[in-house]
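Lab channel / #folding
Pinned by the channel admin:
"Please post every new chain as: sequence first, then the structure tokens as a reply. Keep commentary short and put observations after the output so the thread stays searchable."

First post following the new format, from NK:
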Amino acid sequence: MDTEIRHIGILIFDEVEVLDFAGPYEVFSQTRLSAGVESRHSIASAPFTVFTIARTDAPVKARGGLSINPDYSFSSCPAIDLLLVPGGMGTRAILEDDDSLAWIKQLGDNAKLVTSVCTGALVLARLGYLKNKKATTHWSALEMLRAMDDSIDVQAEQRFIDDGVITSAGVSAGIDMSLAVVEKLHGLDVATDTARFMEYRWKK
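Reply from TO:
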């Protein structure tokens, strides 16, 4: 069994969609290599450390007004194995922010796996991660994704796509994608047990 501890950095920003980051956070933070409820009472068999990353240390105001204190700023975050870029209306501001794009590119280039939820795919497209790859995003942004790079094979009907970079459709689809990452790294039994603990009907 793969027992390597992987560090998962989840980007957050003003107007981030709450379930886009909170759903994957729940999946990765509750994954255990030992099955059952009791294993969730400690981190002894947890294969991931999960934390949020924002441009600065200041609280982030998510969609609906939820205030989140990021664990790290761009300048203070440790090395990560997996980068997750969620969506929300705040991605539009990131697309116009060269400094944030440069930091995200640095994080992604140093990660072993890059993923997105919803319109986070637009950020990955702008950074070139989706060139000549299959990808998806929220149904309302499919045409925007196509327009950003015509080499992207946009998949309109898929909950998530793994083409080296992993993208997912909107909001709740990020949970399905995250469970698929758990399966990819630790097998179907661990992913299924995580979904069962969450009482989530996983759509593979």
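NK: The helical segments are 18-30, 90-95, 98-110, 120-126, 142-148, 173-186, 188-197.
TO: also worth noting, The chain has one domain: 6-197.
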